[in-house]
Amino acid sequence: MSFYNPGIPNEGSGFYQPSAQFQVPQGSMSFTQQPTAQAFSQDPLPQGLLNALSTKGHPHELPLLEEIGINFNHILAKTKVVLQPLQRADSLSAEVIADCDLAGPLIFCLLFGTLLLAAGKVHFGYIYGVALFGTISLHTLLRLMGSEENKPKTDQLFLRTASILGYCFLPLCLLSLVGVFIPLNNVLGYVLALLFVCWCTWSSSGFFTVALHLHNTRVLIAYPLSIFYSVFALMAIFV
Length: 239
Known about the structure:
Elements: H1 35-42, H2 49-53, H3 64-67, H4 72-83, H5 94-98, H6 103-118, H7 124-145, H8 154-167, H9 170-181, H10 187-211, H11 218-237
Pfam family, one: Yip1
Protein name: Protein YIP
Keywords: Membrane, Transmembrane, Transmembrane helix
C-alpha cells in the first residue's frame, strides 16, 4: 500500500507538484528584499583623495559629532540661556534639558584656566580638583533631594550635574577675562566677583529645578551652588 501526498514529490514520477497549502515563508530569511545593499549601491561615496580625507558619508548617516554625543545646537541653546539670566530654563525643550553632554563644560573650564594663565595665574590643577570634588558633593546632595518617582539613574544624574555646573560656569570665564586687563584684588573686583557668582548660582539653580523636577527648593539648592562657584571666583581674584 502506498500513500500519495501532493505536497511531496512522488518517486519515479519525474516532476514535483507543490501542495496548495504550502507557502514560501516570508520573514527575516526572505531573499526578496535587500534594502541595505541597494541603498549603498544607489548612493556611492565620491571618489578622490580630498573626499577620502573629508567627513562626507552616505546621505542617510548621522554626522560624526552627533554619533559621539556632541550636538552644537544643544550647546548653543544652553549657552544662550546662561548668557540671558532673565530667560527661564524651562523654555528649552525636554531633549535639550536631558542632554548630558560634557563638551561645553570642558571648553569653558579650559577657557577659564587659559584666561587665568594670561593673567599670570596657573590654577589648572585647582580647577580640575575643585570641579571634581564639587560635582561629586552636589551630585550626592541632589540625589538625596530628588523625589523617588522622578529620580534618574545614578550615572545619568552625575553626568547631568556635571553638565549643568559646567554650562553655568560661563559667567566666571567673563570674570577671568576682565581680570586679564584690570586687577580684581580691590573693591571693584569683589563687587564684580559677587555679581558673577550670583549670575552662575541663578542660572544653575534654574537648570536643576527644571531638570530634576524639584519644586520650591531653588533657594535651598542655591546655597551650596554659590559656595561652589565662589571658590573659582577666589581663584580669579587672588594670585
